[in-house]
């Protein structure tokens, strides 16, 4: 008998990582004066600087920002698999209109991005920048009471349940941000070993619902079950449209809120995959 597969569909910002709420002060505000707003803002700005700098320096972001795609494989049909070792990306004239020729040039860049993502940040950054990154991560994790490491641990628990005789487990990321910065965030926030590049989606142009539909097509069949985890209204509405259970993450630290990090565990999420819970979700969404 084929094993069932639990597909965890994750949002990124204010779910697995905290960045926007640091920059806006919303995270600190939730603690009613117990968190220093300026410290959070400073941490957020440092992250923002290094993420954008890395996007531009190593991931062609200045060249392709206007050509955001929902996932890296979106233009695979245009890639002729040419050897790119001597290819000059600064001189190939990528631009508008995004016709077949320019789609091929964009597909080349996507291939290189996927390869760099697979190899990781330590193959891109020098030793000093790696130390800075590690220090910034630890500082951020301390400021957020281990939100980052707890979220990563939950992901690893979900992905690591491979000894489960009855179920397989897959993590997929659907972010409202642009694709390249989202991939770079995965690298900086140590999520790249959980989300392979082909399991990262950008809903910026197409919306969360369309991304969820693509995911459903990829994992099609009665043996696949889905659960969405995020903080926003869009993924909530998209999950309802798909009749998938939704777990809403909140930064509010006050009990009894356990849908946050630290707090939420893979065992908690398993409950949402139960047949009874899925049936209840369908009933609620069809009222």
Automatic annotation (TrEMBL):
Record keywords, A-Z: Hydrolase, Magnesium, Metal-binding, Protein phosphatase
Residues reported to bind Mg(2+): 11, 13, 231
EC number: 3.1.3.48
Entry GO CC: nucleus
Gene3D superfamilies per the UniProt record, alphabetical: 3.40.50.12350
Cofactors required: Mg(2+)
SUPFAM superfamilies: HAD-like
Active site per database record: 11 (nucleophile), 13 (proton donor)
Source species, domain of life: Eukaryota
The protein's enzyme class: hydrolase
Reactions mediated catalytically: O-phospho-L-tyrosyl-[protein] + H2O = L-tyrosyl-[protein] + phosphate
Any Gene Ontology biological process: positive regulation of DNA repair
GO MF, any single term: metal ion binding
PANTHER family, alphabetized: DEVELOPMENTAL PROTEIN EYES ABSENT, EYES ABSENT
Similarity comment: family membership: Belongs to the HAD-like hydrolase superfamily. EYA family.
Protein name: protein-tyrosine-phosphatase
Lineage: Eukaryota, Viridiplantae, Streptophyta, Embryophyta, Tracheophyta
